[in-house]
TrEMBL record:
Protein name according to UniProt: Large ribosomal subunit protein uL1
Keyword Transmembrane: no
Taxonomic source organism: Acetoanaerobium noterae
Similarity annotation: Belongs to the universal ribosomal protein uL1 family.
GO biological process: regulation of translation; translation
Gene: rplA
One GO CC term on file: large ribosomal subunit
A single GO molecular function term of this UniProt record: tRNA binding
Lineage start: Bacteria, Bacillati, Bacillota, Clostridia, Peptostreptococcales
Chain segments annotated as transmembrane: none
Length: 232
């Protein structure tokens, strides 16, 4: 096992790593022990009592965090005609069709964070499935990134919309802001995320839904949240 650094060990000494906190307390600890020279991202890691191997137990969606993420996402939009003009007017960073597909394929170009596509463009975008899928960049109707409401989608993404979905180990990993936000704003974002995740519980899921919840900063240790106190 890799040896933890001095700052990490110092952070661990400031709280009880075996204790389960309520959400606001836990985020307060994350902010308090953060020691990096940059503004660390705060993330939530949520293990669910579902089995992602089954289609009827998938958990995926998106939510607009009330205080944003602290990051301005670069948005690429696949659209044509009036929808392309709408995307440009709404502040999309890149707008195109076949030209962007070629650029991604031939130049291995990924200078963007989120892709929005109108439904009629998905046949074209599908050609990029093998490269976009592993990076989590493939547009999806469940996350609101396959839509004719291009302006709305761009505005939400720029305002702090984040996507959540299960990984292969049934865990969701989502950023909820920056350390500089402070615990109150981070808690507001966290509660918005948890409300969305709880609402997305599949009907096929049995037993305890929220198995474990941990919050952490980029360079800091994980702080456990009592799954029964995620709203506190």
């Amino acid at each position: 096992m890799a040896k933890k650094g001095k700052k990490y060990q110092e952070a661990l000494s400031k709280f009880d790593k075996n204790n389960y906190y309520n959400a606001t307390e836990a985020l307060g600890v994350v902010v308090e022990v953060a020691s990096a020279k940059f503004d660390e991202t705060v993330e939530a890691h949520i293990k669910l009592g579902v089995d992602s191997r089954h289609a009827d137990q998938q958990v995926r969606g998106a939510v607009v965090l009330p205080n944003g993420t602290g990051k301005t996402n670069r948005v690429l939009v696949f659209a044509k005609g009036e929808k392309a003009k709408e995307a440009e007017a709404a502040g999309a960073d890149f707008v195109g069709a076949e030209d962007l597909v070629t650029k991604i394929q031939s130049e291995n170009w990924f200078d963007f964070d989120v892709i929005v596509a109108t439904p009629d463009m998905m046949g074209l975008v599908g050609r990029l499935g093998r490269v976009l899928g592993p990076k989590g960049l493939m547009p999806n109707p469940k996350s609101g990134t396959v839509t004719f409401e291009v302006e709305k989608a761009i505005n939400e993404i720029k305002a702090g919309k984040v996507e959540y979905r299960l990984d292969k180990t049934n865990i969701i990993h989502v950023p909820v802001g920056k350390v500089s936000f402070g615990k109150e704003k981070l808690a507001e974002n966290f509660h918005a995320l948890m409300e969305a995740v709880v609402k997305a519980k599949p009907s096929a899921a049995k037993g305890q839904y929220l198995r474990s919840v941990v919050v952490t900063s980029t360079m800091g240790p994980g702080v456990k949240i009592n799954p029964a106190r995620v709203n506190d």
